[in-house]
Amino acid sequence: MDIRLAKGANTPLPAPSCRVRLTSPGAEIDVCAVLLGADGKVRGDEDLVFFNHPVESGVELADDTITADLAAVPAPVERVAIVAALDAGAGGPASFDAGSTPGAAVECGGTRIVFEPPPLTGGETAALVVELYRRAGTWKVRAVGQGWATGLAGLATDFGVAVDDPGPAPTAAPAPTAAPAPAAALAPAQAPATRRTAPVPAAPAQARPTTPPAAAARHVVLTKSGTDVLSLRKDDPRVVVTATLQWDGGSTRRRQAGADLDLYALSVPRHLVTAGRQRPKATDLAVYYRRLGSLTGPPFLALDGDARAPGRETVSIARPDLQGYVLLCAYSAVENGVGSFRSYGAHVVVTDNCGSTVTVPLFSTRARAYWVAIAMVDFTTGEGVRIGHVEQYSGRDVEARPTLYSNGKFRMGTGPVEFKTDPAGG
């Protein structure tokens, strides 16, 4: 029996052993798996299963296939992320595109589960394709399809893996053949068998980096009404900022009651920003599950899709030189019933794709609100991109979305009403 999953969908795994094969029709890829705990992090670097450490805790890699003996996976491991990264030395594309986005086929107990993600077109060089995860004592598979413009190194770092940095490619004459190469520069077949540190794929010589070099990576969690600044060059068109709404359902009870959240990015482009005594104007620019946006044209924001189960939704923000304000909001579908956004474990993570992250949590347990404005991303400041915790909720049972104004202010419950179950909207 074949099952096809849409992005964000999940299905139970019918047997305790399964094989996950990743393929890319237009590129050579490296496949690996990351074993993650309840906090979304590895227990240690050994939880990265890759070509030089192919077996760990019931998970094994062979070529492009991950085999998982789920009964042997230790209890602290709640998710097994199956990842594809471009093989930079294979002469293929510099980043994933519509012709090379990796897909997955899961074979388990006579059932074949297939996931073909929407095309990755935002400069991504690594992708979390699917994940195997525990839920109420059973194992399931979820179609994820999330990309990283920072490659395997950035993805691994986000999951808590210590990554070796091979440094810049040498420009001098080659070293004498008698001198041993450092471990980080060895080809996979030459690397010591005991090495367990994540590989950093080298970029093709002709490829330009997706983002420019940045200062040392920082990881900040905002307090109530707190702010932080991601230092980056807004005049560099290669820069892409990403913001991810993450939620795990919070509890078995909440997941059973419903856990479909939606990320909305309301925006004001730079040329419409008003300041001082100028009269602010409302904007209706919104990127969400019905308007996925674009990174190659206005509004230079794009959502990666609609996750209808606990997981993540990511909006990429390109051309920071053309951006003014981006308000990140979450909507809870009516079918979810009553419950606070915090009870879903919802929070936003903003990254500069150079390793730095700003996490924006929720603090209120307020229920019966369909909308929450979580974070403001301010591109108008001269010091970089300012991320602010704003946490405001719609009124009781108010379905109207927030309205963002051209001066960066916003009001809850004053925008259009659109029910998710109504395909026509309104």
Topology:
Elements: E1 2-5, E2 10-12, E3 17-23, E4 29-36, E5 48-49, E6 55-56, E7 59-62, E8 65-69, E9 79-86, E10 103-108, E11 111-115, E12 126-135, E13 138-148, H1 151-158, E14 219-221, E15 227-230, E16 240-247, H2 252-257, E17 261-269, E18 282-283, E19 286-287, E20 293-294, E21 301-303, E22 311-318, E23 323-332, E24 347-351, E25 357-360, E26 371-378, E27 385-393, E28 403-405, E29 410-411
Parallel strand pairs: 1-11, 14-25
Antiparallel strand pairs: 2-13, 3-8, 3-10, 4-5, 4-9, 6-7, 7-8, 9-12, 10-11, 12-13, 15-27, 16-22, 16-24, 17-19, 17-23, 18-28, 20-21, 21-22, 23-26, 24-25, 26-27, 28-29
Describe the 3D structure.
This protein has helices at residues 151-158, 252-257; strands spanning 2-5, 10-12, 17-23, 29-36, 48-49, 55-56, 59-62, 65-69, 79-86, 103-108, 111-115, 126-135, 138-148, 219-221, 227-230, 240-247, 261-269, 282-283, 286-287, 293-294, 301-303, 311-318, 323-332, 347-351, 357-360, 371-378, 385-393, 403-405, 410-411. It is mostly beta strands and 426 residues long. A seven-stranded mixed β-sheet has the order 1-11-10-3-8-7-6, with no helix packed on it. Strands 14-25-24-16-22-21-20 form a seven-stranded mixed β-sheet, with no helix packed on it. The protein has a six-stranded antiparallel β-sheet with strand order 2-13-12-9-4-5. Strand 28 and strand 29 (410-411) form a beta hairpin. The two termini are 39 Å apart.
